[in-house]
Specification:
Strand content: 5-15%
Radius of gyration: 14 Å
Shape: globular
Strand order of the largest sheet: 1-3-2
Number of helices: 4
Structural class: mainly alpha
Distance between the termini: 14 Å
């Protein structure tokens, strides 16, 4: 599914949590595939950076990890600027917990949508 998994994650978040907002830009080339950083929100350019590893064909577990990363970064986007700056330099377990809870809530809808898009693509092929 590759890029479509990312697009679907953003669509599901937008449908269920429009208050988080979707960044103007999405970048999947700036973070090293083998690096430990899987996502990053850049407030000055309103860019969501995702690790290119999310462009691979993902298992359901990997797709949920992608959704968690997207939610984590969008929670940063929705935070006040001072908190975004502070969280850039220190652990932020509050965001981790929120993203985990939201992933548990939205995960079933995301996976169902992902499967239906995948099935539709197979029928067209």
């Amino acid at each position: 599914m590759t890029q479509r998994d990312i697009d679907l994650a953003l669509e599901v978040v937008q449908a269920h949590l429009p208050e988080l907002g979707i960044p103007k830009r999405l970048c999947t080339v700036r973070l090293p595939v083998s690096g430990r950083v899987v996502g990053q929100y850049r407030w000055h350019s309103d860019t969501l950076r995702l690790n290119p590893r999310y462009l691979a064909h993902l298992s359901d577990a990997d797709a949920l990890d992608l959704l968690d990363t997207v939610l984590h970064e969008l929670l940063h986007k929705a935070s006040p600027l001072w908190k975004q700056l502070r969280d850039s330099f220190r652990p932020h377990p509050d965001i981790w917990r929120q993203a985990e809870a939201l992933t548990a809530r939205l995960g079933p809808a995301y996976l169902a949508r992902r499967r239906s898009v995948h099935r539709a693509g197979q029928q067209q092929a």
